[in-house]
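ingest -> validate -> predict -> emit
validate: passed (alphabet ok, no gaps, 366 aa)
predict: started
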Amino acid sequence: MSGTFGFALTRTDGAARLGRMQTAHGATETPAFMPVGTQGAVKGVTPAELLACGAQIVLSNTYHLALRPGHELIRDLGGLHRFMGWDGPILTDSGGFQVFSLEGLRRIDEDGVTFRSHLDGSTHTLTPESSMAIQTALGSDVAMVLDECPPLPAARETVEAAVARTTRWARRSRDAYDGPGVPFGIVQGGTYADLRDASVRDLVALDFPGYAIGGVSVGEPPEAIARMARHTAPQLPEDRPRYLMGVGRPEDLVEAVAAGVDLFDCVMPTRNARNGTLFTSEGRINIKREEFRRDPRPLDPACACETCRTASRAYLRHLYVSNEILASRYNTIHNLAYYLGLMAKMRDAIAAGAFASFREAFLATR
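emit:
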């Protein structure tokens, strides 16, 4: 385990938590959103632009980086931080979610998962031990254990078996990890509250430095995600960071912070940006609509990001319908600034003891 890792709560407001997660590559003030840099890059933006948007920590993907360019190459070039030019903390997922989504291209057994690459069809095996070795080579600050994430719909017995295997794999991952950061355990259990309870008990007994709530972004309705977050988060150790994986919409983040969650990631702000859907203080905007063709206003008058300081709605629409690369860049910068700004506003509200009123006012606008 890394001696540089630590987590401390600095304030609570109801179940909402204000904290600080320390790593070898700096601190992250929580609650925090992690932009997704699947292949070692947050699509369309530079590390400097990420910092300008308010990013503190980013997420990268074990599966994709192991296949291309290869974790050994990244290790030999000084690790992922140097490779991608990002000096702040990096969390890497285990690759499990991506492998389990390769329906028809993978086989699961007790040892791990055998799968065919989506790039060239070559066969690979990912085990708890090899996932930890890959993340060690990448040099990530937080490494996620390999877990089994059954897709929806899944029968109870399937989910129950996945919970048991996730615990066994978590123990193997913990014992195998020898990296510069720390491993986090992942709670599974689908929408079955009692299976979530069992998963929490098993993983807390393994004494991980942090815990994730997994398996809640595989197709469940938003109310089910919120229910499982409210059910699971309070059972996790108070002095460890709590991470809700793959969620989600701005309102989902607010509700999860209200439940006591500290860390989040999702492709929604960047993917939506590339599709022309932008998040603003006045709600979502589909920038390709005809109504914005002659609109001289900034995208969001309440936002101070580069996009809102520079480009009008009319210009952003023109870029998008003209298929200009700058459209994706401007849109991504804004959506990230919106998400990261939302997290900063929640941190401020918790610090002021005003999170309940912030939450009520925010949700009233959705």
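The longest helix spans residues 325-351.
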